[in-house]
Design a protein that fits this description.
By secondary structure, the protein is of the alpha/beta class. Helices cover about 40% and strands about 15% of the residues. The protein has helices at about 15-30, 45-55, 80-85, 95-100, 105-120, 130-135, 140-150, 175-195, 215-220, 240-250; strands at about 5-10, 35-40, 60-65, 90, 120-125, 160-165, 205-210, 230. 2-phosphoglycolic acid binds near residues 209, 210, 230, 231 and 234.
């Protein structure tokens, strides 16, 4: 049974000062929660300061994006090697990257490969839009995103895949556990099994994301195909994020 994981995506929130304060408050609550990996993903400019706060604690650091090239003339971008010394994780292919910055499956695939080369663990985000769901294409879209992100990768090592239906992100309307299970256990897992001969269930952790709160996380964490949560809004609220981590531990340990 893989170690469950809760990851907090701060998105474009918090100044460096605010980020430091938030990290301190989060660490205070999270450090005592065991049986789950805890990851926070602040904006780039706060990574170094937050890394300082997390040093010597059980809370890990992740970035929200990166470029796939090692270095070069890519103004405004951040290379994998620049993150490798600071972070263990990197979010890739978040739906906001896909929709606002035109990130394609091909771009995500290059980034996933580059993350592995740099020794970073990718958290690859997939998920269908409302329109795709309503036209019956959710399974096809998500399977395509998984295949696209992992194309040409023979060894997936420690990979995390977050299923975040676009219509559930930041809306307060989470997917039902049935829908999450249909996609995660019924689409993502079989897609991985089709691609890899070694049982992916032993290597890949699947997170549900999209309006996760202390009130609904247990229903997701109880699902066999779910190993934790990717949390946006509630990760900016230390009391809520710590509570989410605790609930995931309880649900995964059968409590
Ligand atoms: P949300 O965001 O929890 O605020 O819906 C999730 C995400 O975008 O990762």
């Amino acid at each position: 049974m893989p170690v469950p994981i809760v990851a907090g995506n701060w998105k474009m929130h918090t100044s460096v000062t605010e980020g430091l304060r938030l990290a301190l408050e989060l660490v205070e609550g999270l450090d005592g929660v065991s049986g789950v990996e805890k990851v926070i993903c602040p904006p780039f400019v706060s990574l170094e300061a937050v890394a300082g706060v997390l040093r010597g604690t059980s809370v890990k650091l992740g970035a929200q994006n990166m470029h796939h090239e090692v270095q070069g003339a890519y103004t405004g971008e951040v290379a994998p090697g620049m993150l490798a010394g600071l972070c263990e994780y990197v979010l890739l292919g978040h739906s906001e990257r896909r929709s606002h910055f035109a990130e394609t499956d091909e771009a995500v695939n290059l980034k996933v490969k580059a993350a592995f080369r740099a020794g970073l663990c990718p958290i690859v985000c997939v998920g269908e839009t409302l329109e795709q769901r309503e036209s019956g294409k959710a399974a096809e879209v998500v399977a395509g995103q998984v295949r696209g992100a992992l194309r040409g990768l023979h060894n997936i090592m420690d990979l995390v895949i977050a299923y975040e239906p676009v219509w559930a992100i930041g809306t307060g309307v989470a997917a039902t556990p049935e829908t999450a299970s249909e996609v995660m256990g019924g689409v993502i897992l079989p897609t991985l099994q089709e691609m890899y001969t070694r049982d992916p269930a032993a290597q890949v952790r699947l997170l549900y994301g999209g309006s996760v709160s202390p009130g609904n996380v247990e229903s997701f964490a109880r699902l066999e195909s779910v190993h934790g949560a990717l949390v946006g809004g509630a990760s900016l609220r230390p009391d809520q994020f710590v509570e989410i981590a605790r609930i995931v531990v309880g649900a995964k340990s059968g409590g």
